[in-house]
From TrEMBL:
Broad class of where this protein is predominantly found: membrane
Entry-linked InterPro entries: TolC-like
Gene3D superfamilies noted in UniProt: Outer membrane efflux proteins (OEP) (1.20.1600.10)
Protein name: Outer membrane protein TolC
Annotated organism of origin: Flavobacterium segetis
Residue ranges crossing the lipid bilayer per the database entry: none
Amino acid sequence: MYLIFIPIISYAQQNLTLEECYNLVVKNYPLAKQTQLLQLKSDHEIESLNISKLPKIDLNAQATYQSDVIGFPIAIPGISPINKDQYRATVDVNQLIYNGGMIEANATLKQAQTKTQQQQVEVSLYQLKSRINQYYFGILLLQEKKSLLISKNKLLLSKVKEVQSGVKFGAILPASELILEAEILKIKQQITEIQFENTKMIQNLSELTFTQFELDIVLAQPQFIHQSVVVRPEIIFYDLQNQQIDLTKNTLVKSTRPKINAFGQGGYGNPGLNMLDNSFQPFFVIGVKANWNILDWGKNKTDQKVLEISKAIIGTEKETFELNNKMQLQEMESDMNKMKQLLQTDDEVIVIREKILASANAQMKNGVITTSEYLVEVTNLFEAKNSLKTHQVQMAAAKANVELIKGR
């Protein structure tokens, strides 16, 4: 399903659609900024991982004085006693040659973690749409009620003129005009209440979307037509969590592989590598070092089991979500079926009430019934119309909520 919108009023006022509200909250809500920030953070973390492929260079210097040194029991010609004060400055270079693909695995895992975190943001933003629906259809219902009250007010104002004429010629009691004026004042109060409630809800919608809306904004009545199925963001989130666990397991496997490094050291010191030479000498050492932990006492296997359990937990969360989603969908579809029947009855009631009001109007003109009795029928008709508009908005809200539940 996708949404198309038909404005219910064609004034030269600011118009707003439900889809625009969705887009505004996704664009402007503070949480939406996290998506880009998470990607930026991931890029820097992966860059840091890749830097570990480069040679590591350390500069070291030390000066020591020892309480004792190696000595010889007899004097050897050409060999001086070793000095107790020793000096050394070195440059140490370490270059990773092989670590089982851990850097690439960690970089891939980091990308998966970022996607999962970004999807969590999408889930949170998607959940805001239900609040958008609440405010949007609340305002839409107030619009409809205000429109009906204005129509009722126009009808009564026209009747005031008729009653004034009837009072003038003695066909209608003078109190009839006062009864109509009192009802008109009551309508004015009801419109005032609606305006204040409308202001509050528009302000709530403005704050949620971080967009300033005019108080006389006209909301569009959404209608729905079929579109291709879209998966709920929560389902994508659970799938990404599972992918992240699979990649974590992959890093555990690669962590058991041997690691090979090349190293080199160049320096200048007294003594150098020849401990029997008491002069400052340059020196260097190069080599290759391998490390392989052949026994971890089952830690890797235990970590793998922990990840499998975590995956099972995610599976239960996904299953629970789908079950609750299915129940919500059934409830909403039941409400929609109820609304369909109520709307059919509403149309029938309005037709009957219009006939009754037409009869009451004629009877009031002929003095058969009082103005109060006529007002009862006017109220009954507009209550029936109000019921119709309420059910129409509730039906539209139910359809919009069904679309959210289905992830469309």
